[in-house]
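Annex B. Sample input.
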Amino acid sequence: MKNSTDAQSVAKESKELALHYMQTLVDVARESFLILDRDLRVISANPTFYEVFRVSPKETENTLLYDLGNGQWNIAELRSLLEDILPQKEVVRDYVVKHIFETIGEKTMALNARQIDTVQLIILAIEDVTIREELQKKIADYTEGLEEKVAERTKELATKISELESVNKSMVGRELKMVELKKEIEALKKRSKNGNGKNGNGSHKNG
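Annex B, continued. Sample output.
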């Protein structure tokens, strides 16, 4: 009986020590963190979590995760992560969840979770990537719009180049015709001049 009590005491001390270290680490983290027990009740959260999700320690600690914020955390994707995926893998990284919260609106969250079996605790990191997602979407939309404008402009330029080539060919054709006409005129002038000279000489001799 004593051995059993000693083992329980050691396990309790180990859990408390692990919890202390966890809380010390997550308190200074920029991401939101939750420390859960094996029943998915919140043991503690860091200041970032309270700030981002606008809740207090009183309404968070010792509360089932899914009951937080009047059930706002009862999210199907989150349940799948904690109840199906995490027990098998023990570590899950960059699990993206989108959800609309009553107080803070729509959020895109990247979840990272680790199950620590030795002390029966779960640490859940919640990174708010909403702004990043919005920026990526804006960049994608802008790039798509830019590509469309470039394609449209390229088409316009190709049309103008084709028109210019057509005009250029027409002008070159006219210049060639002008050159030919000038040559013909010069030839006619020479013939006319030569013809007049012969006629003049013939008249003088006959006189």
